[in-house]
């Protein structure tokens, strides 16, 4: 089968940063599904994984942590899917990814594709949707009783922010999102943000200008170090902060200690990376969100499509992500 990958970390401009290669089609065993990949989307984690790869590795690494396609074979332990099922998934960062014609994915990380979404639209959603879902419900423990509370989403126009705004709005929270350009502000508003503020300006002052003295929850989807002081000022006593971007410098926890603030990390590959007993929760999340998409309560966040899936289109996608101005999600169709 055709696959696109790399051997060592190189700048995306280098002709060898991503290359096409013929590799053996994998065989489904155990809980694995063999999926014929129809579309993939590209996330910041793809570019980070490409840049972080150890120099001069001998193994050909295939990236891609979002996909949608058709089940072509099932392992002997599979019970959730059958051959011919249309599915979407985010996969496992420790295994070969979706930038190929076929991919093996543990069925416990897979959901039935929303019927009302195309393969391209569905491929845009799994990684960001699971990240947003786990952030809100697993890490910050938001429940029905929290309706009417407030959440600040830093980086609202990105992939995770675009679905987090929708989920938080559905949950009945007052949603304050951050954006810095007119087009990203309008995008956040279209998704249900009640208030949009600029993440390059003082966050607490902007909250006060909107008659808010603080927020109950903060979901930080951008530079955690850059926004730490602002988050410490904005979070209410006994509030909760969740971040998805690793910190380069130490975080001064004294700034949130007196408020008894809870701080949590979210990494959507935790369950698969550590073979957690509750891996199947990601199947349940994707199943629930598939229903919400089909009911029209959630909308897909695909904003850009490339085709076909080649080394050149994938390089173009990585470059767009590295430019840091992406709104929503970028998808590449297989053909």
UniProtKB/TrEMBL annotation:
- Write down the InterPro entries for this protein, in alphabetical order: ADH-like_N (IPR013154), ADH_Zn_typ-1 (IPR014182), ER (IPR020843), GroES-like_sf (IPR011032), NAD(P)-bd_dom_sf (IPR036291), Quin_OxRdtase/zeta-crystal_CS (IPR002364), Zinc-ADH_QOR/CCCR (IPR051603)
SMART domains named in the record: PKS_ER (SM00829)
Pfam families of this UniProt entry?
A: ADH_N, ADH_zinc_N_2
- Keywords assigned: Cytoplasm, Metal-binding, NADP, Oxidoreductase, RNA-binding, Zinc
- Main localisation: cytoplasm
Among SUPFAM superfamilies, the record links this protein to: GroES-like, NAD(P)-binding Rossmann-fold domains
Determine the domain of life of the protein's source: Bacteria
Q: What does the entry list under GO cellular component?
A: cytoplasm
Q: Which GO terms describe its molecular function?
A: oxidoreductase activity; RNA binding; zinc ion binding
Sequence similarity: Belongs to the zinc-containing alcohol dehydrogenase family. Quinone oxidoreductase subfamily.
| PANTHER family assigned | QUINONE OXIDOREDUCTASE
Do you know which NCBIfam families this protein is assigned to? Answer: adh_fam_1
Q: How does it assemble?
A: Homotetramer.
Full protein name: Zinc-type alcohol dehydrogenase-like protein
Q: Which organism is it from?
A: Shouchella lehensis G1
């Amino acid at each position: 089968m055709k696959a696109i990958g790399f051997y060592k970390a190189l700048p995306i401009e280098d002709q060898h940063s991503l290359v096409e290669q013929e590799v053996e089609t994998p065989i489904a065993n155990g809980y694995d599904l063999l999926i014929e990949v129809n579309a993939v989307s590209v996330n910041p984690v793809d570019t980070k994984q490409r840049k972080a790869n150890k120099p001069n590795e001998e193994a050909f690494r295939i990236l891609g942590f979002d996909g949608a396609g058709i089940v072509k074979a099932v392992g002997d332990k599979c019970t959730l899917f059958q051959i011919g099922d249309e599915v979407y998934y985010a996969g496992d960062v420790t295994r070969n990814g979706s930038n190929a014609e076929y991919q093996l994915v543990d069925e416990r990380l897979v959901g039935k594709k929303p019927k009302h979404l195309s393969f391209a639209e569905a491929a845009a959603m799994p990684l960001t949707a699971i990240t947003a879902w786990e952030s809100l419900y697993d890490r910050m423990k938001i429940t029905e009783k929290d309706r009417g509370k407030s959440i600040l989403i830093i980086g609202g126009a990105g992939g995770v922010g675009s679905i987090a705004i929708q989920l938080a709005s559905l949950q009945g929270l007052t949603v304050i999102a951050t954006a810095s350009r007119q087009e990203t502000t309008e995008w956040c508003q279209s998704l249900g943000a009640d208030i949009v503020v600029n993440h390059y300006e003082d966050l607490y002052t902007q909250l006060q200008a909107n008659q808010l003295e603080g927020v109950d929850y903060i979901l930080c989807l951008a530079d955690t170090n850059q926004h730490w002081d602002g988050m410490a000022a904005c979070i209410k006593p006994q509030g909760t902060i969740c971040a998805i971007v690793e910190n380069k410098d130490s975080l001064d926890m004294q700034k949130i200690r007196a408020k008894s603030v809870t701080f949590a990390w979210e990494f959507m590959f935790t369950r698969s990376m550590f073979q957690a007993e509750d891996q199947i929760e990601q199947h349940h999340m994707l199943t629930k969100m598939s229903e919400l998409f089909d009911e029209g309560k959630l909308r897909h966040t695909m904003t850009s499509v490339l085709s076909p899936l080649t080394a050149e289109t994938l390089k173009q996608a990585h470059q767009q992500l590295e430019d840091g101005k992406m709104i929503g999600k970028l998808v590449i169709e297989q053909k």
